[in-house]
């Protein structure tokens, strides 16, 4: 909502300064978004007279004009307007001026070889009217003002307010003035409007059809006959221009003025274009009309339309139609002032994607009791400017408005705000805001003003009182530093731990969109179904991510393109497996790329491999409190991993929920997304699948058992089937006697010469130690034999001699 | 001079010469070997007259110790010299670079969330979460924003179905609803998380982060709200004083509602929080609307309290001097490296939020 202090003063008596005004507006909840200074910009536009106009030597349609702008020398201006001729008084803009319509700054320019010293402006370029045919023609009376500024100096700045949707009354200057007055900023002026007196009947029949759902419940109107529509007088034009509106014609300008002044949208019809009578009804599916924005709208059924016998004239409370629009030659007008239901307005406007000043106001709620006031004010203004005769006001209603009342317990104020104000103060504020107050000991019986649809309960009254008396009065109560509940739950702690654990292994944390490009997502969605966004901001962000890889890989690629190598990044966040709330999982996903020890003077460089990424995954899980000896790994992985060089990790052999996938990203994907790196490894840890350890870390620590008896180490080399996993071998050995055998390490894996083709050799180092005694040679020998026998029996391995 | 003395003199003399290790070892065996001169003397002890024996033995031991010690120290000396000589050769250019290392970093938004959690933890808040995909009811209707409410226009919502029943939450406020439906009052929670609006330009990202706060109890009023936020802002920006302004605003789910501005000024192109005469809007808050409480079966006659919503990314930008919101999600390696935090820098109240 745009206002000026000058306009406010029509309604508000105050001696305070604009600076105070701006502070006060914000203090009472009418936030000042910006304060514009139009005057400096408009200073530059001068009244000027064309002294000579000649044809441009290099262009048939252009003229070179010598223009008197009140300076010693005439200005040479190139102009394309057909009406540019010697003697014309018009408006001149020098280089540096900003053209209001296009917001472009003029510069001195050569046009077809001739330097133009500024520009002669059309009305449309100055936002004075839609007239773009030719330059502005000013009357002879401007002759004596040549060289003077055209726009009168605005008396105050343009103030742009951000009015919250609950305050339709402040979409009119008077509503803002009322709020200010209640807060002690000046006094609200009592408008002594002339009352319209007429003996003429309103002869155009208006009928509101009683539909099941009727978006219009009151329709007020009057006829004004024998008008002469014209340009608005200067005061009215200036008023509208001062808030950035474009004057059009007296009739339209008056309706706009009334709307901005008292928040009462009106509509003026050319009465002669209405066929027989006005019918307010619901639209029928397929009906069409051309609106004043020159667009054709096809209506669905059930929209509230104003129609005549021929068809739709306009969408009530949203936009009128061209068929019945007023023009400069309009003789008789019908002025409409109606009440439209916010819900109906919103539904219709949404369906047709229409936004107008009237719609904006009606959907928030217009004062239902302002119908007559609006007609009265507008009709009189039109008669003043355009002449004519005004009929009586006719109001058709299908519902009568009754002011709502509310019982307010005055103690609630202190209960909610924490401070006290006197009963007298409360009454003063409420009365100035327009409430009628009937007081008893602890209660007010309040009649809510008709322009405040936002107020329906007691707490709304608390807000009014605290808002007007000032939020700064609220006392600060410092919080007490005490905690009765732990801040984070166990899963939340795990989330934070994993996040920092993986970062500590050299991964940079990224945060990427929860949505992604379906082309990328397709590579990584595995068996998850695609979740589409109905209205994405772009097709590249059209689906919710089924995996974090899609975004990570895209961004990793961008970084590689920037010339960086050996990057590791990760993200911890949601992936989506369905479109219902809760159908999402938290995943810790990482990518590592390139080489280890690239360009090292000391170490051999090598590509990262799957055992690098496996270490990161396993170490992270171990650090988070999981026992790696229980981990179970196989190679059933989604198809975006390398089928051979990848794994699936479970926390234990029960294989309930997948804890993680890790491995090389499938080479085909690298090819498709054209990513250039020596290696690309990825992992996904499914945070929600990590059952919390039964014992907290705290509990695990309680028992401390170590053996001080001597340990001994034994080496074994087994020839096993190529397909046997080392995991099976280790688990077989460790299962023999957990009290004696620990720390089983594989120190060599060999295939090739001296070994059958379908076999491999695995060399293992085993630590043997008892908690009860130092084992003697015989004990050790027994265990040795047991290990060999068990491994051979269970896995078909043969000890290598 | 006795034989012993002679022996001693002779060998002391020999040991004074420059000797290498093998020569010393030769001397050692000459003296102490199986048939070494000293060893032979010891063998003699038995045959010596009883009266002389004790004296002889004592003298012999002294000489033996003296020679032995001298030989050992000589050997030590030579060995040291040899090691030193060897080490001398092993000298390297220690200014050559160490083995390469990589540093991981925590994203500033994650760090900021941890900072916020730490601050609210001190005054008894616990952390709640909710899903990113919400139903229309939790995101709007339950929050007193019925269909056709103009406030819905301010939330450019991403929808997941044509009926507009499922959406990406436009704020963290639905976590209020979930929390209150799940438990019984009192409530004292914060809920950080991702939020979404279909809005994308220099200052808006289609995804951003908010933290919701909710405190419902028997007598929680606007003074508590002011105190809580005042405490939070001071702690977060790690300043002693903060200029803060509450001004009336409107959110359908709070009544009265307020927006909070903090004072700032620009010094050398950098923003300084807590001073100056410019105002910066940083959050919205208010007393939870009785309709919201009714919707979650909390009796507004018995319980009341406040809620607030803060833009996390915005806070991070202000605190850490980040200019461009979009960069948060652009994943530029250089940016992550520059603005990221060491994973060991966990914000805690005893160590402080930041270094």
Describe the protein's topology.
The complex is a heterodimer of chains A (801) and B (355).
Chain A: E1 2-4, H1 5-8, E2 12-13, H2 18-27, E3 31-36, H3 38-42, E4 46-55, E5 63-68, E6 75-79, E7 89-93, E8 109-111, E9 114-116, E10 119-120, E11 158-162, H4 173-182, E12 187-188, E13 205-208, E14 216-225, H5 234-242, H6 250-262, E15 267-270, E16 277-282, E17 288-290, E18 296-298, E19 304-307, E20 312-315, E21 333-340, H7 342-352, H8 357-362, H9 371-386, E22 389-390, E23 394-397, E24 405-409, H10 411-417, H11 423-432, E25 436-439, E26 443-447, H12 458-469, H13 490-503, E27 508-509, E28 515-516, H14 518-524, E29 531-532, E30 543-544, H15 549-561, E31 568-576, E32 584-593, E33 595-596, E34 606-607, H16 610-623, E35 632-634, E36 641-650, E37 658-665, H17 667-672, E38 680-686, H18 697-702, E39 712-721, H19 726-734, E40 741-750, E41 759-768, H20 777-795, E42 798-799
Parallel strand pairs in A: 13-16, 27-31
Antiparallel strand pairs in A: 1-11, 2-12, 3-11, 4-5, 4-7, 5-6, 7-10, 8-9, 14-21, 14-22, 14-23, 15-21, 16-19, 17-18, 19-20, 24-26, 25-26, 28-30, 29-30, 31-32, 32-38, 33-34, 35-36, 36-37, 37-38, 39-41, 39-42, 40-41
Chain B: H1 3-16, H2 21-32, H3 37-44, H4 50-89, H5 108-122, E1 126-127, E2 133-135, H6 136-139, H7 151-154, E3 166-168, H8 174-182, E4 187-196, E5 207-217, H9 222-237, E6 244-251, E7 254-267, E8 270-273, E9 278-288, H10 290-295, E10 304-311, H11 312-320, H12 333-339
Parallel strand pairs in B: 1-4
Antiparallel strand pairs in B: 2-3, 4-5, 5-10, 6-7, 7-8, 7-9, 9-10
Helix pairs in contact in B: 1-4, 2-4, 5-11
């Amino acid at each position: 909502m745009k206002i000026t202090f000058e306009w406010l003063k029509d309604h508000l008596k105050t001696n305070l300064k604009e600076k105070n005004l701006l502070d006060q507006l914000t203090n009472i909840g009418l936030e000042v978004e910006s304060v514009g200074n139009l005057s400096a910009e408009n200073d530059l536009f001068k009244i000027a007279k064309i002294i000579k106009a000649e044809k441009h030597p290099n262009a048939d349609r252009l003229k070179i004009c010598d223009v008197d702008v009140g300076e010693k020398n005439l200005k040479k201006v190139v102009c394309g307007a057909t009406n540019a001729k010697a003697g014309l008084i018009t408006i001149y803009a020098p280089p540096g001026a900003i053209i209001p319509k296009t917001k472009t700054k003029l510069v001195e320019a050569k046009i077809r070889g001739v330097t133009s010293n500024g520009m002669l402006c059309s009305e449309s370029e100055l936002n004075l009217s839609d007239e773009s045919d030719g330059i502005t023609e000013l009357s002879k009376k401007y002759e004596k003002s040549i060289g003077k500024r055209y726009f009168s100096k605005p008396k105050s700045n343009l103030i742009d307010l951000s009015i919250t949707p609950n305050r339709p009354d402040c979409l009119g200057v008077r509503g803002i003035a009322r709020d200010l007055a209640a807060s002690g900023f000046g006094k609200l002026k009592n408008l002594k409007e002339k009352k319209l007196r007429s003996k003429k009947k309103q002869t155009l029949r208006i009928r509101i059809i009683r539909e099941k759902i009727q978006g219009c419940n009151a329709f007020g109107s009057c006829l004004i006959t024998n008008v002469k529509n014209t340009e608005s007088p200067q005061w009215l034009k200036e008023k509208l221009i001062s808030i950035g509106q474009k004057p059009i014609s007296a009739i339209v300008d008056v309706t706009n003025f009334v709307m901005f002044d008292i928040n009462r949208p009106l509509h003026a019809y050319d009465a002669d274009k209405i066929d027989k009578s006005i019918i307010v009804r619901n639209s029928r599916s397929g009906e069409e009309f051309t609106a004043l924005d020159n667009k054709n709208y096809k209506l669905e059924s059930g929209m509230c339309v104003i129609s005549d016998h021929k068809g739709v004239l306009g969408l009530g409370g949203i936009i009128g139609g061209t068929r019945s629009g007023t023009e400069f030659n309009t003789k008789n007008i019908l002025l409409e002032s109606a009440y439209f239901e916010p819900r109906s307005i919103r539904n219709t406007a949404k369906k047709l994607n229409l936004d107008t000043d009237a719609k904006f106001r009606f959907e928030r709620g217009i004062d239902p009791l302002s119908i007559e006031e609006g007609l009265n004010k507008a009709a009189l203004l039109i008669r003043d400017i355009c002449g004519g005769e005004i009929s009586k006001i006719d109001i058709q209603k299908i519902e009568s408005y009754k002011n709502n009342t509310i019982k307010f317990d005055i103690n609630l104020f202190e209960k909610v705000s924490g401070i006290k104000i006197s009963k007298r103060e409360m009454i003063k504020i409420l009365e100035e805001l327009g409430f009628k107050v009937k007081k008893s000991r602890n209660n007010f019986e309040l009649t809510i003003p008709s322009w405040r649809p936002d107020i329906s309960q007691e707490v709304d009254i608390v807000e009014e009182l605290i808002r007007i008396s000032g939020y700064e009065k609220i006392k600060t109560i410092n919080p007490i530093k005490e905690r009765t509940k732990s801040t984070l739950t166990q899963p939340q702690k795990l989330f934070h731990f994993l996040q920092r654990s993986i970062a500590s292994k050299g991964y940079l944390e990224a945060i990427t969109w929860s949505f992604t490009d379906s082309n990328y997502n397709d590579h990584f969605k595995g068996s998850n179904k695609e979740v589409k966004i109905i209205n994405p901001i772009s097709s590249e962000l059209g689906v919710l991510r089924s995996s974090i890889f899609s975004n990570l890989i895209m961004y990793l690629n961008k970084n590689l393109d920037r010339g960086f190598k050996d990057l590791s990044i990760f993200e911890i966040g949601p992936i989506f497996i369905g479109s219902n709330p809760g159908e999402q999982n938290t995943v810790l996903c990482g990518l590592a790329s390139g080489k280890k020890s690239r360009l090292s003077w000391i170490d051999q460089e090598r590509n990262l491999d799957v055992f690098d990424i496996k270490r990161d995954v396993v170490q992270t899980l171990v650090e988070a409190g999981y026992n790696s000896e229980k981990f179970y790994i196989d190679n059933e992985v989604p198809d975006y991993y390398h089928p051979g060089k990848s794994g699936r990790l479970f926390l234990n052999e029960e294989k309930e929920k997948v804890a993680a996938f890790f491995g090389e990203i499938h080479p085909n994907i690298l090819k498709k997304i054209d990513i250039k790196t020596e290696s690309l490894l990825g992992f996904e840890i499914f945070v929600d699948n990590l059952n919390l350890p039964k014992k907290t870390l705290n509990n695990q620590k309680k028992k401390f058992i170590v053996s001080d008896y001597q340990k001994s180490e034994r080496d074994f080399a087994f020839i096993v089937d190529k397909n046997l996993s080392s995991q099976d071998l280790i688990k077989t050995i460790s299962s023999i006697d957990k009290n004696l055998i620990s720390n089983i390490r594989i120190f060599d894996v060999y295939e090739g010469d001296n070994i059958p083709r379908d076999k491999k050799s695995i060399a293992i180092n085993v630590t043997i130690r008892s908690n009860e005694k130092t084992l003697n040679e015989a004990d050790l020998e027994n265990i040795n034999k047991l290990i060999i026998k068990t491994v051979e029996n269970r896995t078909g391995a043969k000890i290598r001699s | 001079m006795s034989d012993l003395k002679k022996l001693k003199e002779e060998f002391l003399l020999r040991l004074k010469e420059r000797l290498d290790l093998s020569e010393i070892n030769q001397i050692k065996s000459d003296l102490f070997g199986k048939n070494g001169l000293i060893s032979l003397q010891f063998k003699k002890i038995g045959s010596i007259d009883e009266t002389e024996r004790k004296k002889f033995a004592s003298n012999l031991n002294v000489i033996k110790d003296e020679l032995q010690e001298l030989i050992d120290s000589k050997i030590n000396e030579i060995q040291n010299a040899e090691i030193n000589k060897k080490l001398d050769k092993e000298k390297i250019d220690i200014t050559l670079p160490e083995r390469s290392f990589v540093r991981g970093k925590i994203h500033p938004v994650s760090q900021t969330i941890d900072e916020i959690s730490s601050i609210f933890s001190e005054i008894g808040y616990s952390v709640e979460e909710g899903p990113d995909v919400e139903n229309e009811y939790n995101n709007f209707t339950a929050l007193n924003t019925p269909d056709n409410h103009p406030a819905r226009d301010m939330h450019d919502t991403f929808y997941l179905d044509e009926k507009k029943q499922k959406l990406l939450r436009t704020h963290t406020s639905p976590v209020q609803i979930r929390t209150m439906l799940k438990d019984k009052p009192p409530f004292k929670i914060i809920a950080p998380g991702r939020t979404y609006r279909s809005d994308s330009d220099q200052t808006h990202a289609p995804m951003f982060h908010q933290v919701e706060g909710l405190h419902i109890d028997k007598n929680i009023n606007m003074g508590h709200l002011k105190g809580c936020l005042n405490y939070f802002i001071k702690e977060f920006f790690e300043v002693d004083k903060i200029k803060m302004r509450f001004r009336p605003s409107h959110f359908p789910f709070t009544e009265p509602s307020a927006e909070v501005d903090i004072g700032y000024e620009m010094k050398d192109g950098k923003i300084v929080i807590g001073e100056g005469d410019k105002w910066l809007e940083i959050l919205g808050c208010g007393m939870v609307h009785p309709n919201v409480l009714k919707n979650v079966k909390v009796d507004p006659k018995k319980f009341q309290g406040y809620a607030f919503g803060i833009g996390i990314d915005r806070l991070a930008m202000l605190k850490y001097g980040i200019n461009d919101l979009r960069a948060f999600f652009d994943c530029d390696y250089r940016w992550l490296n520059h603005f990221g935090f060491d994973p060991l820098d966990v914000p805690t109240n005893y160590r402080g939020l930041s270094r």
